[in-house]
Amino acid sequence: MTWLVKISRKADKQKEKLPEKVKSALLFLMHEISRNGPVRGDWLNYGKLSSGRHHCHIKKGKPTYVAVWEEIDGEIRFVEITYVGTHEKAPY
């Protein structure tokens, strides 16, 4: 079963400021979440922040870029990307 992946309005604005390479990595991450679910142990520095909240690095180095997403499981399998940007400003 597939997951519906949505990007929040705030994260969408943050996405527009990212370098092209990081944007493509984010789109690939969203594609993988939609096909395989929100637990992405195969991504760099993936970690579960709390119940239903996850993060991973989408580009290592300086600066490091991360994505944070929340899974909302009800009748519809739904994931929302809530943050995308540099590691220093990540809301953990």
| Alpha carbon gap, first and last residue | 29 Å
- What would you give as the CATH superfamily? RelE-like
Count of helical segments? 2
What percentage of residues falls in helices of 4 or more residues?
Answer: 25-40%
Low-confidence stretches: none
Q: SS-based structural class?
A: alpha+beta
- How many individual domains? 1
Give the tally of β-strands.
5
CATH architecture classification name: 2-Layer Sandwich
Beta-strand residue fraction: 35-45%
CATH C-level class is Alpha Beta
Q: What strand line-up does the widest sheet have?
A: 1-5-4-3-2
Large-scale geometry: globular
Rg result: 12 Å
Order of helical and strand elements = EHHEEEE
Fold and architecture overview:
The protein is of the alpha+beta class. The chain contains two helices and five strands, in the order E-H-H-E-E-E-E. A five-stranded mixed β-sheet has the order 1-5-4-3-2.
What is the topological layout?
Layout: E1 4-7, H1 9-16, H2 20-36, E2 47-50, E3 53-59, E4 65-73, E5 77-86
Parallel strand pairs: 1-5
Antiparallel strand pairs: 2-3, 3-4, 4-5
Question: What's the quick description here?
Answer:
With 92 residues, the protein is of the alpha+beta class.
Task: Give keywords.
single chain, 92 residues, alpha+beta, 5-stranded mixed β-sheet
